Amino acid sequence: MKLCGAAILIECLIEQGVQTLFGFPGGAVLPIYDELYKREDRISHILTAHEQHAGHAADGYARATGRTGVCLATSGPGATNLVTAIATAYMDSSPVVFLTGNVPQQLMGTDSFQEADILGITMSITKHSWLVTDVRKLAQTVREAFFIAKSGRPGPVLIDIPKDVQIAECEYEPASGQALIPNYSPDHPALQLQPYGKQLEEYKRRVTPYLERACELIQAAQRPLIYAGGGVTDAASELKALSERMDAPVANTLMGLGTIDPQSPMSLGMVGMHGTHAANIAMQRCDLLLAVGVRFSDRALGNAEAFAPGAKVIHIDLDRAEINKNVSTTLHITGHARVVLELLCERLPAQRHTDWVRQASSMRENYLQNDLFEPRNVLHALHEAAGDMTVATDVGQHQMWTAQHFPFSRPRQLITSGGLGTMGFGFGAAIGASVGTGKPVVLVTGDGSFRMNLTELSTAQHYGVPVIIVLFNNGTLGMVRQWQTLFFSKHYSQTTLDRGPDFMKLAEAYGLAGWRVQTLDAFRQAIAQALDAGRPCIVECMLGIDEMVAPMVAPGAPIDSFCLN
Amino acid sequence: MEPYDPFDPLDPAAPKPEAPHSRNTISTGTQAPVTRHTVSVLVQNQPGVLSRVSGLCSRRGFNIDSLAVGPTQNEDVSRITLTLQGDAAHIEQLVQQLYKLIVVQKVIVLDPRRSVERQLVLCKIRAGAAERDAVMRIVDIFRARIVDVARTTLTIELTGEDDKTQAMLGLLADYDILEIVRTGTVALQRGESTIAGGIWN
């Protein structure tokens, strides 16, 4: 059947099972929006107020569901507005397909209206990218893009489609099943899928000597510790099994929160700059560190030289380039966490480290509830009401408080910008997560971050996306203020937010319900009503300007030397 | 799954991580010996490939001494030769980062003892009748060639390894060099070994 490029694009998205697009129209994508109009029955479109938040929404959709998110924007400013969203997805390995229009090819390179070299701009923050110069290559490119975004270590990809390619016509052959997977070398390290069948047998054969060596190291260890990150998202049950088999406690990175039940005595919580005492101290005392799906970020490591000084390191990761990048290892195994952990568990005899486990878990903090209206108590109250709902955050103090005090009991429950630390990420991501899961989502944000994305209130309101916004209003850019307090002689340079808006009036202006609370009881009542409402609303929590995130390790210090307790 | 790994922890010949107390391979990398490496990369022959490879090198902090690129016997595949200074950990990172580019098909680190390397230099010298003979003697010694002669200038073509080209340019420095242009190093393994074979072979 003969179709124009725009129609082929939509057919290919339907072919990939895409149900929702997040985007914003413009001149260079008009043909695509015309096709969307015709195919409203098959594919829905969420119009955001700004392209950046459409990008974050597609990212949040991907993180919450595990399916690939899709975002569409026009050329020039539309495309450049996506840059932060693309970089955010890239740093946290989130599979998103970004689609941009571009000016017709005969105008490219002439500085024409709304022209930008988005391929060049995003080259270092995408897993791969394409400029489609021929409509006959479009369908194959879209199939490749979806394959690459989701295979190996996932990540964002970008397809730039000039307007003339959207209009040009060619024969379109629908594809399904195996034909959707492009003919890429199965050996390409960036494109490996989780092995199965024959491939799994071959993988097992090749990995066996490494597993044997890993078992030797584990059996020789007295104080083993598992360090689990975002790469374990789809291997939580394997992690639990291995932790029990090894009798080893588990410390999480920010991205790994939820991969082990925080109520389990084996869970030591988050490690790093704002990590728990239990996790940070265990990290420094262990004699074997089994690092799974982590990239040894500087925020988790503190001082890399002084990190886990007495430990042998076994690093299991899908991305070979992460091995020996920040920390050199005794042994590494390249592969999917789910596969490697399962194989390791099968091979390893049960271990016992009673004293070590008792010692490590005795450092776990016991939460003593009181009635003070402080972040810790608010988050516990939020957890009582929200349970295992998906929680998105922005970036700053509220993000760290949430990571520390909200017990995440399942993977994909916490949606947060870990690697890039993008203020303004949360609202878009929460909208995407809610659309993707079909369930209400809590957004914990701060007054600083919320200013960056409150423009999306109209989006949530219009589509009735139930995002419960818990807004920590302390009248400051709190995390920066905290650093100014600790390291810059209390020079509060440009961090005090002594200005509007009145968030309750703002809620009203957008037609949302809002509660401003200053006590725990008021918070509990407000959050109960908010969760019942089934539509977006704001619960504004008035906090003191000098609340700090503790514990804290100064940047570059060993992670067991806390500068705040 | 694991294509091949020159830094295989089970291989006794593979480079080993440093002592546990100096684990940070980036900041303490200078403790390990820094040597010159030649890396050959097979890439898909498509627009933008060179900027993907060179962009990766610059943003990850690899200082490339030279880079040469050209098509191979297979028109869909180009071959890039990079030379750079670094220790084993540095080179390991470069190889693994290159593999993350979808356009990269194969990367090998060439063993200098088992490969041949060449670069080409064109050098234009101010040489009238008085200097011509002396310059031509240097050209003969280095088995270079004169590719253009004019009343007042000589243009010399020299191929060879880095050491040889440096040595000859050192001698020519006594004369008035008008301009120099040089290609990046290209290299092949000796004997039966090809880039399609294993690494370090």
Structural notes for this entry:
Chain B: GO terms for molecular function: acetolactate synthase activity; acetolactate synthase regulator activity. Chain B: Pathway: Amino-acid biosynthesis; L-valine biosynthesis; L-valine from pyruvate: step 1/4; Amino-acid biosynthesis; L-isoleucine biosynthesis; L-isoleucine from 2-oxobutanoate: step 1/4. Chain B: It is an enzyme of class 2 (transferase). Chain B: Belongs to the acetolactate synthase small subunit family. The complex is a heterodimer of chains A (565) and B (201). Chain A is 38% helix and 17% strand. Chain A is built from 22 helices and 22 strands. Chain A is an alpha/beta fold. In chain A, helix 1 packs across helix 2 (30-38), helix 9 crosses helix 13 and helix 10 (236-246) runs parallel beside helix 13 (337-347). The termini of chain A are far apart. Chain B has 201 residues and is of the alpha+beta class. Chain B is built from 4 helices and 9 strands; from the N terminus they run βαββαββαββαββ. In chain B, strands 5, 6, 7, 8 and 9 form a 5-stranded antiparallel β-sheet that branches. In chain B, strands 2-3-1-4 form a 4-stranded antiparallel β-sheet, covered by helices on one side. Chain B is elongated, with a radius of gyration of 20 Å. The chains are: A alpha/beta (565), B alpha+beta (201). Chains A and B meet through helix 9 and strand 14 of A and helix 1 and helix 2 of B.
